[in-house]
Each structure stands twice: as C-alpha cells, then as structure tokens.
Write a structure and sequence with these properties.
Number of helices: 11
CATH architecture of the largest domain: 3-Layer(aba) Sandwich
Radius of gyration: 21 Å
Shape: globular
Number of strands: 16
Strand order of the largest sheet: 7-6-15-9-14-13-12-11-10
Distance between the termini: 55 Å
Length: about 350
C-alpha cells in the first residue's frame, strides 16, 4: 500500500488548478461547489490533497454536517484520482477511514465517478470495466457498504466530443436529427446567456416545475447555483428564442475535460418548434469548441424500463446516441456499525411510526 501525505488546502486557485490535472476531476469537487453547498445547505467543506512526495495523486473535497448529536461527512464524486492503481486506491481509502474515525462520524459517504459498466444491462453492448471491479472489491474489503442513499445520479449518458460535428450529427437517431433540423427551419435561434438573463432563466425553470410537477427553490438559491458559477467561468447558459422571445434554456457546467448538462427548462409556448433538441446540439458544439472532450447529459434511469420516473427524460437523451455509463454509486464507511445501523435503519423507522400515530 502506498504511503501518502494528506494536506488540507485553503487556496481556491491552487485547488482548482491541481484538480483539473487529475483523472475523474468533477465539477462537484471544485472549490466553488464546496462553497455553494456550505452557503445553501450548511455542509462545511474540507479540501484534502494526497501527496506522494511532491506529486498530488488524489484529491477529496468533503463536507461535514451535524445532524442533532451526530456528525456525517459526504464527498460528492470523490476521490479524484487514477483508478488503475489498486495500491493507491487502498491508501486513499485507509486515509479517509482514519479521518472518519478520528472525527467520530456516523458515516463518511463517497460516490467516486468510477464506471461499473457501459451499455444497457444485459444487452449486447454491455461492457463491465476493470476499474469498477477493482474499486468495488477494495471498498468491500475495507467494510464500506453500498449506500441506500444515492445523492447523485448513478447512471448517465455521455457523448464523445472528440468526434467531428458531422459524425456526432450522423450518429443521432433519425428522429432526433430531424427535430434538430425542425427547430432550425422553424426559426429557433440560440444565443449565449449571461448574468442579465438570470430572471429569464428562473422564470422558465419555474414554468417547467409547474408543468412537470417538481419543486424548486427560491430565486436566491439559483443566484448562487448559477450566477456565482457563471462569474467564475464554470457555467454557461444557452437560451433558445423565437422572434426575440425566450422559449427554452439549458445551463451547462464545465470543468476539466467534461461539460455537464445540469439544468434545462422551457416555456409552455412554441414547444412544437423543438427548441430543446437544438439547444442540446448547440450545447455539444459549444462544449466541443471550448476544448471539452466529454458531454455528460447528467442522469439516466436506475431501472431501464418505463417504470422508472426518469424514463421519459432518458427517451429524449438516448436519441443523441451517447454511451450509457453505469457507475459504482455511493458507498458509506461507518466506524461504528451499531450506530450506523441505528441512524440508517431504526431512526427512520421510528419517525415513520410516529407520523402514522399522529395521523
């Protein structure tokens, strides 16, 4: 097992610059994301760089939160590190376990951006990865448990932006390609958004939430989620318009080699003009032009059938003919298994019983 030196980092520029150089660098591990979660939900970030000699070989931004008398920790899409070296993976896991024990945590949760398999389950395209098997076996050997709470999407759809635009367009399903062209023919135009467009972005997002039945937060939350990332050059809105009126938008987050489609919204008008299809195409073109090699459509079903709540969204995404990536998901390390069981099993059961009694 490797000998690593963990170092707490307090310099935002140093952190992001070093993170960009590592495999699995993710927007949820950036300095800005830690600050955003601290301001909006109370997670206190700690940024740790693991060094071997003078070389940074792994990085983890982990949030800590107190829940009643308990303390929990969560490192979204971490650690960022090479995944082909079992000795390095084990050394990082041991360091994280030591930290969790020292701080008296109920659990420390990580969800590495490690792919378990590509392609649909039990399909001819399904391919399991050596990295997913190795990482999972090491987690199990060190008593980490696959978490019942999966904060991030476990599956997603990605496109390889190293292909030419002609190839990306040709690879789309015939229906999706036709709808991209329909938007162009029906005079939908796409422009880059900026800070002045925040009210437009929020109004369209609120309209979408009312139509599709999901809850959204107040505008101030999205000012922090969108504006501050835009100001730091980590987020870019694209807005679809018809006759000068905004009818749809996407908000892209980008870092390292990846561009993520995080948010999307549309009005109730002009939907027959297919603005969402053209927005995705122009988003891919924007990401490719800015040097990103992967376009991540951020989310796919847990179960790949119509019973899954994300099936409709997946039907839209799969028309662009990206690769389905299924990750190893979130894992918990619990220094005290009895306390962990009580927190994750007994306490929720007691609360459900109390709610039934009060009804």
């Amino acid at each position: 097992m490797r000998s690593l030196t963990p170092t707490i980092i307090t310099d935002a520029t140093w952190w992001n610059d070093a993170l960009r150089e590592l495999p699995m660098a993710h927007i949820l591990q950036t300095w800005e994301w830690g600050e955003f979660k601290h301001r909006t939900t109370g997670w206190q970030p700690t940024r740790i760089a693991f060094k071997q000699g003078q070389d940074v070989v792994a990085m983890v931004s982990v949030g800590t939160r107190r829940i009643a008398p308990f303390t929990v920790m969560y490192a979204p899409k971490a650690p960022a590190m090479p995944t082909h070296d079992p000795a390095l993976i084990e050394a990082v896991l041991v360091a994280l376990e030591r930290m969790a024990r020292r701080r008296g945590n109920i659990w420390l949760k990580i969800d590495p951006d490690v792919v378990w398999a590509t392609g649909l389950p039990q399909s001819e395209e399904e391919r399991f990865t050596a990295e997913g098997r190795i990482f999972t076996e090491l987690l199990q050997a060190h008593r980490w448990k696959s978490s019942k709470d999966q904060p991030q999407f476990r599956n997603t759809v990605t496109l390889d932006l190293t292909a030419s635009e002609d190839v990306l367009l040709a690879n789309m399903s015939q229906t999706t390609r036709r709808k991209v062209r329909t938007a162009e023919k029906k005079d939908v135009t796409i422009r880059l958004g900026g800070l002045a467009d925040l009210p437009i972005l929020y109004d369209l997002y609120r309209t979408t939430s009312e139509r599709d039945g999901f809850l959204i937060r107040p505008l101030d939350y999205y000012r922090q989620a969108w504006q501050q990332f835009m100001e730091r050059g980590l987020a870019q809105p694209l807005i679809a318009e018809h006759a000068g009126t905004p009818i749809a938008h996407v908000i892209l987050y980008h870092f390292g080699k990846t561009c993520w489609y995080f948010y999307g919204a549309s009005s109730n008008d002009e939907r027959n003009r297919m603005p969402n299809y053209l927005l995705q195409w122009e988003s891919m073109r924007w990401a490719k032009a800015h040097g990103y090699t992967t376009y991540d459509m951020w989310g796919a079903p847990n179960k790949f059938d119509e019973s899954d709540s994300m099936w409709g969204v997946y039907e839209f995404k799969r028309g662009f003919k990206g690769e389905v990536r299924r990750h190893i998901g979130a894992w918990d390390y619990a220094p005290n298994l009895a306390t962990y069981w009580g927190y994750t099993q007994a306490v929720p059961s007691i609360l459900r019983t109390l709610r039934r009694i009060r009804q």
